[in-house]
Amino acid sequence: MRQGKGLRPTLSIATCRALGGDVQAVLPSAATLELFHNAFLVHDDVEDESLMRRGEPTLHTTHGVPIAINVGDAMLSLSLQPLLDNMAVVGLGRALRILRAVAGMTKESVEGQALELDWIRNGRWDLGADDYVTMVVKKTGWYSFIVPMQVGALAAGVVDDGRLRSLVPFGIALAVAFQITDDLLNLKATPDAYGKEIGGDLWEGKRTLILLHALRTASEEDRARAVAILSRPRASSTAGMHAVLERMAADGRISPDAARELEQALGAAAKPPKAIEDVQWLFDLIGRQGSLEVARDTAVLYASRAREQLAELDWIPPSRHRAVLEDLTAYVHERAR
Amino acid sequence: MRQGKGLRPTLSIATCRALGGDVQAVLPSAATLELFHNAFLVHDDVEDESLMRRGEPTLHTTHGVPIAINVGDAMLSLSLQPLLDNMAVVGLGRALRILRAVAGMTKESVEGQALELDWIRNGRWDLGADDYVTMVVKKTGWYSFIVPMQVGALAAGVVDDGRLRSLVPFGIALAVAFQITDDLLNLKATPDAYGKEIGGDLWEGKRTLILLHALRTASEEDRARAVAILSRPRASSTAGMHAVLERMAADGRISPDAARELEQALGAAAKPPKAIEDVQWLFDLIGRQGSLEVARDTAVLYASRAREQLAELDWIPPSRHRAVLEDLTAYVHERAR
Fold first, then answer.
1. How many Cβ atoms are within 10 Å of B193's Cβ, its own excluded?
2. Which pTM does this prediction carry?
3. Which of A53, A199, A210, A289 has the most crowded Cβ, counting Cβ within 10 A?
4. Which residues of A touch B67 (CB under 8 A)?
5. Which residues, other chains included, contact B299 with Cβ-Cβ below 8 Å and sequence gap of 6+?
6. A78 contacts B73? CB cut-off 8 A
7. Which positions 37-66 of A are in contact with B (Cβ < 8 Å)?
8. How many Å apart are CA A280 and CA A226, to the nearest integer?
9. Quick check: A121 and B77 CB within 8 A?
């Protein structure tokens, strides 16, 4: 019941209609992509311990991790049926090609997610812009941009493999520009305009182009401090306990010795979490290193590339539906600047 | 790389071959079912906070929750491709019917899981044997018994809906008998023979036929005590801290007042977990109420019903492959006694 952007169905429907297809032909596939996206977001939020999504607390914080995992599984499971019902709508041949595109897309997504989780698990921060782009294309490029458009084209009756493949570089450029600007907004926006947490990416230690640039260009000392902060957990169930201990020690109600021993016992249960000052320091580091500007330039570069790629897709004739793709590309370009 | 029973592929292959089908015709579907099962187990273990699986620590305890969730998603995603490749193996018509059976099966599973998680979330213990059976049939009956056999029959070329439907009551009876005996073994077996944790179901507060019977027949006082124990978490990251506090208070290193205040601060962070004595008391309650015997009788009843249902499936001619189904049914019957 939350308001989403509906980006993936929009891309599917616009592509289908721009190619002369009927909206009914693409609706089941568009619904599937939106279901898949929501499943992925719910699981992603559990994995990243994210607190906010679309302006409200994430599902696992309100309903618990077990229910959130199962809701994601349910949405993944339910996404198969519309693709099977599709056969009555677009015919067997098209429905099967759409199924294959979706199967390939989900594989890319989980591989991208695996890549990112592997970096987190191994505390990897020695990553370049190319690593970031590879991860983004796998994690969101295929399911959010490339396959939505391919599915729209397939639903409209496009059978030429060359045409379907030519949507790939456009989708990649759009995806990377989109993700970088998303990462930039995470550091800037007010909750009303954006719906996610402010600076949530820093609290989560997300490998963004921005943060990776700051780490790559920082002094050895700053980098070590940043990595130490980023390796701490976001929050701790024992944070309140630390505060009580501190106060009782200050009031002289427990001895310094006892306080130290208790802190140690507590420390064994949970690493101290990131403090607001730590995250502020990361913000400042990013500012000092000029990483926001570098990321913005990169996003503009990819957005321009997307504009060029779209211009080459001349087999999609001009129409108010093609204009949706053009407007989106222009919007991403504008948002990046 | 862990040793599983391979129950689902076994059912698929035996049914297919018993009906004159080739093993190659059923292999992709059988692999899909095993993938789906493993995906479901990995997510299930996260949701139940299970510690052991197939004699080894669960995936989320060794690799963390985020990776375990993504591994489950990956296995779910990868299970689609073999079903699409199936078209070249068994032809379009059969492949599509298999896809539809799998789509229906996954829906049942997530609904069964949702039912169980809803009971946990709402602290529901006022459940009857019928609730338990409904949950088991949805959660495991379809994907572990009914659909594996249907898929085997479809791969062998069975097109008659009546025959496919007649596998349902057999699968249901087998599933319920199987699950009850599984629950019984969880309370009895040694780790070597079984591979799961001993009494893990009690630590997790799993709604088994056994525990539900004990609660239903216990005195009001015993039931209240049991529900209070079952509502506590399995473990707590602050358990060590409780122990340190207790020792320091006993040694007089902190005042009783300070100890109480710190315990309270700690208590706000985490409910005290179940103690081994609590779980032992639940064991004893189950013994006193004769719940093991009642569950065993119910399992034998369902196993007998499965035997009768299988005898009626006379369109599966006698062979060493049909014998696999008969042996499995006899094994379940034997295991229950």
1. 9
2. 0.87
3. A210
4. 114, 117-118, 121
5. B176, B177, B180, B181, B184, B332, B336
6. no
7. 43, 46-48, 63-66
8. 11
9. no
A57 forms beta bridges with A52
Over chain A (337 residues), what is each successive 10-residue block's mean pLDDT? Answer: 86 98 96 95 93 88 94 93 93 95 96 96 94 98 98 97 98 97 82 56 93 97 96 71 78 84 68 85 95 96 97 98 96 84
Pick from A207, A128, A136: nearest CA to A171: A136
User: What residues contact A287, with CB distance under 8 A and at least 6 apart?
Assistant: none
CA dist., res. A114 & res. B64, Å (int): 12
A–B CB contacts, 8 A cutoff, strictly below: 159
Rounded to an integer, what distance in angstroms lies between the CA atom of residue A144 and that of residue A12?
10
Mutate to test the interface with A, among B37, B86, B97, B110 (most CBs of A within 10 A): B110
Read off the pLDDT of residues B195-239 as tens digits, 9 standing for 90 and up: 445 678 998 899 999 999 999 999 999 999 999 999 888 766 566
Would the CB atoms of B73 and A43 count as touching at under 8 Å? yes
Please choose, from the candidates A75, A3, A7, the residue with its C-alpha nearest in 3D space to the C-alpha of residue A39. Answer: A75
Answer whether A68 touches B (CB < 8 Å): no
* Nearest-by-CA chain B residue for A117: B67
What's the CA gap between B26 and B236, in Å, rounded? 46
Number of DSSP helices (H) and strands (E) in chain B, helices first: 18, 2
Q: Flag whether residue B268 sits within 8 Å of chain A, measured between CB atoms.
A: yes
CB of B154 closer than 8 Å to CB of B286: no
Q: What is the DSSP string of B277-320?
A: HHHHHHHHHHHHTTHHHHHHHHHHHHHHHHHHHHHH-TTS--ST
Chain A residues touching B87 at Cβ < 8 A: 96
